[in-house]
Amino acid sequence: MRNANAGDAIHFGPGLLARQVTARLTLDPPDQQALLAAATPRHVLKGEYLMEEGDPRLSLIIVGSGMAKATRVLADGGQQIVAIFVPGDMINAGDLAFRRSVVSIVALTSALLLPIPLATLRTLMDARPAIVTALWRETAAQAAIQQEWMIGLGRRTAEARMAHFLCEMSCRLQLGHPDAGDGFDLPLTQQDLSDVLGLSAVHVNRVLQGLRGQGLIEFDRGRLEIRNKTGLYAVAEFDAQYLSELMYPEAGSS
Amino acid sequence: MRNANAGDAIHFGPGLLARQVTARLTLDPPDQQALLAAATPRHVLKGEYLMEEGDPRLSLIIVGSGMAKATRVLADGGQQIVAIFVPGDMINAGDLAFRRSVVSIVALTSALLLPIPLATLRTLMDARPAIVTALWRETAAQAAIQQEWMIGLGRRTAEARMAHFLCEMSCRLQLGHPDAGDGFDLPLTQQDLSDVLGLSAVHVNRVLQGLRGQGLIEFDRGRLEIRNKTGLYAVAEFDAQYLSELMYPEAGSS
DNA sequence: CGCAACATTGAACGGTATCAAGTATGGTGG
DNA sequence: CCACCATACTTGATACCGTTCAATGTTGCG
After folding, report:
1. How far A153 CA lies from chain B's nearest CA (Å)?
2. Nearest nt by C1' to A206 Cα
3. Staple A155 to which of A72, A214, B6, B78, CB 3.0 to 4.6 Å?
4. Is 0.90 topped by the overall pTM?
5. Helices in A63-189 by DSSP H: which ranges?
6. Residue A179: what pLDDT?
7. pLDDT digits 0-9 by tens, A180-204
8. DSSP string of A29-95?
9. How many contacts (CB atoms, under 8 Å) link A and B?
10. Interface contact flag, B146 A147, Cβ < 8 Å
11. Is the pLDDT of residue A249 over 80?
12. Which chain A residue shows the shortest CA-CA distance from B241?
């Protein structure tokens, strides 16, 4: 949302956006440009629904900027967030393999989306096999993150779960700009956090205070500062490697 | 493991096995045969490790018969099972997109595996794009099941979680032979169930007794009988559709 | 200013874990 | 065929982590 390089090969976006996105797309420049050129950028507002449970899938959506959550509402009114999407992510790439989405997608911030209509995508996939591979890899990356969440939900204490999630988001959000400090925007309410971590909102509050009290983090109005990275990693038993491998996979796997 | 049709196009397997497997591979016959022909069948015994955390990925493994679990051991000795594989599944298809596995794979029964060396697979993927699509679809299917587990771990009671898991396994195991009754082999100990559901083994025992007491199931020595399918589905809030869509996706999505 | 959303705090309850026996069950070797 | 052993299952008592309920404080926004 800063310098709009009108001269970019990618015609629709500011330079910064393109860089964040392209860093995640493991595609050769021609494939990448073909894919991005097929998108019709679209802005959405915070809180807007991009997709609802049961909707047919109409497009592949790449997040250009902003964040979104994938959530499922249960009969008793409870809610579980099953994914958080950051710039460069393909929103529920895996769902595309099926007829309809089983989760709702909600924008956590105002966001710029790059939706690619399914018909166009199919043509591209036929013409450029690397795009199928990229979709597969993205699906696999999201599945690996999900596995980490499952382990947290099943076997970690509330504190470790929270710490682990914060570490994960820190890594994922800072991939594009590794020079940034230890603070970043995490536009989640405590209610959102509780729906990610399978806790009550009240307990999230107490856990956050615990982490604050240990001098590990500050978290205020959607901004997280990591005060003691080593300590936080220790509480989380966090191994950053699983993510860097996901995000920057070995070249030449097709 | 019954009638060995030596005349089958697929040279290594009994007819029944081939049918179970091929029903899940959404590939045209030529692609399917090319893929399966590249496998060197291998038997493993109950309890055998097929893969350990951190191992490099050397092959794509399709389950021919038997079952396996994907598990992750934590520092405190706790354990979380993140997937159960049944005949026709590709074991951690998603992990192939990366360098190494982050989970261990253990055989739950003696099993027949169809491993396809990674080098061969890459050649096949280049020659037959439909195979990449199939890997992607399989990864997506497993991710969708994982999401369902996450929802259970995060937001369902122990009883609903258990019921839901049993419903899921019932559907997945009976896809090949829909005529079978409401009983099937589920070779999991109560300890295994606890590691799937994020509970203690003691509590699993009590939950099972609860379901038995309501006349919903029988579960004895690895054999599950569903006595009241409607009732069990109700307790689980189980929607069978999400699975049938995963397993029998619409034709022509490439 | 006033409302709505979000965050914080305290008290009491409850689901599930943990600990500690004890009881089947099935496989093995004699 | 039996004695033995390991594994799995069952049961009861107790403790705790996290929930629920209810009230209050805080922030931002139209």
Report:
1. 6
2. C8
3. B78
4. yes
5. 118-127, 129-155, 158-174
6. 65
7. 678 999 999 999 999 999 999 999 9
8. HHHHHHHHHT---EEE-TT-EEE-TTPBP-EEEEEEES-EEEEEE-TTS-EEEEEEE-TTPEETGGG
9. 148
10. yes
11. no
12. A102
